[in-house]
Structures are given as structure tokens and as C-alpha cells.
Design goal:
Blueprint (H helix, E strand, L loop, with lengths): L8 H16 L5 H9 L20 E4 L2 E3 L2 H11 L6 E5 L5 H8 L3 E6 L2 H14 L4 E4 L12 E6 L8 H5 L1 E12 L4 E10 L2 E10 L11
Parallel strand pairs: 3-4, 3-6, 4-5, 6-7
Antiparallel strand pairs: 1-2, 7-8, 8-9
Helix pairs in contact: 1-2, 2-4
The structure holds S-adenosylmethionine.
S-adenosylmethionine (SAM) binds next to strand 2, helix 4 and strand 4.
Amino acid sequence: MAYKFIDNYREQGARKRLVEILEKKGIDDKQILKAIGKVPRHFFFDETFWNQAYKDIAFPIGEEQTISQPYTVAYQTQLLHIKKGDKVLEIGTGSGYQACILMELGADVYTIERQEKLYQRTIQVLPYMGYKPKFFLGDGSRGIKEHAPYDKIIVTAGAPTVPDELLKQLKIGGILVIPVGDEDKQKMVTVLKTAENDYEKHVLDTFRFVPLVGDKAW
Ligand code: SAM
């Protein structure tokens, strides 16, 4: 893919319209809408497909993976209730777009991807755009124990169950957001860790993610 980093009026206008669409769909967190209005999503697309970058759709990024639909990114981010300085683990870096949105909100992001080509691309593209999360290559279904505990954990691929390891790596008061279901569709699940072995779980709307593949997943 040939990337080009130019943000002109056409893309800026399209980004503004995307924010309006998300607002209409119920995203009401102003900081998240501001972040979506700021991060140039077309930078994650080959120039040939820039006309797709601000549609509210998921889009292929290679390796049979996708950049998530903006609504889904905003929805999952809202559930995390990010506060400035939160230590956030993202499982499934993919394009790196979600990580940029989290960093715009002031999160300290640890992001892991299992596909080497995608990992290699993000370690170049994100710092070039000015975003510097901590990047990891490997199976995130086990979390990243060495850097635990985390204030928040977001999984951006569909899991068969909530991996225990991820719950263990949450701080007390921490939140995990993870799509759980079969390979076809998943329910968004949030888990609040209320005490060392106590959790409050909520099952929310239905989504369709690529599968979380790994030791504690598919
Ligand atoms: N957050 C991404 C973005 O903003 O573009 C979208 C991610 S895409 C829907 C899901 C990603 O999860 C894919 O890149 C896939 O390779 C990755 N993935 C799947 N299983 C994984 C695992 N066990 N560990 C790390 N990454 C995984």
C-alpha cells in the first residue's frame, strides 16, 4: 500500500460530516467526537480508497483484517470512560486508528497485534503521525502480563469468552470492553472489576468483528 499524508479541505469536510453522523447515531461524548474529528482516518487507507475513509464502515486493511467502523470505535471508547493518564491495553492494533483515538483522549496506550505485517506498518505510520503508543507483536488473548495492571482493556476482535488473564490484568475499578460471541456475531460486553475477585458484567449491543485468534481465543 502507498500511503500519503495530506489532509486537505475535502478530507477535513468529510471528517466533520462523519462526526455529525456519529452524533446522530447516539455518540454523545464530546471528547470522543472531537478526537474523531481530529484523527485523519484516510491516513490509514491507500489513496485510491480515500473516498471510503469517512464513511461509517469497516474497511479491509490487508491480512484479512479490517479497520473498525467509526461508530464501533466510538461506541467501545465511550464504554471505557477514559480519563487522562489511564493505562490502556488494546488487543488488536490493526490499522492503529483506535489507538490514536485513545491517545487523543490522553490515554497511555499499550497495543498488541498478532499479524506481523500490520504491526510493522503501525510502528512506522503512527509515530510519523505523531502518535507513540507502546507497540507489541504477539498473541494478546493472554494480555501483556509484564506491563499489567491496566486501568482499561479494550479488545477489538471477537472472542468466544472473556479470557481470565485479561480480568487478572485489570486494576480494581478497571474496565474491560470485549465483543463476545460466535464467529459470526458478538455482543459487546463490559466488565467492571469491583474487587480482587469480583466483577460486574453488562451485555450490550450486537456487532460483527473479525475473530480474536490465539491461546485464550479461537
Ligand atoms: N483496532 C483496530 C483498528 O483501529 O484498526 C481494528 C482491529 S481489527 C477489527 C482486529 C485486529 O485484531 C486484527 O488486526 C487482528 O489481526 C487482531 N487480532 C486478532 N487476534 C489477536 C490476538 N490474539 N492478539 C493480537 N491481535 C489480534
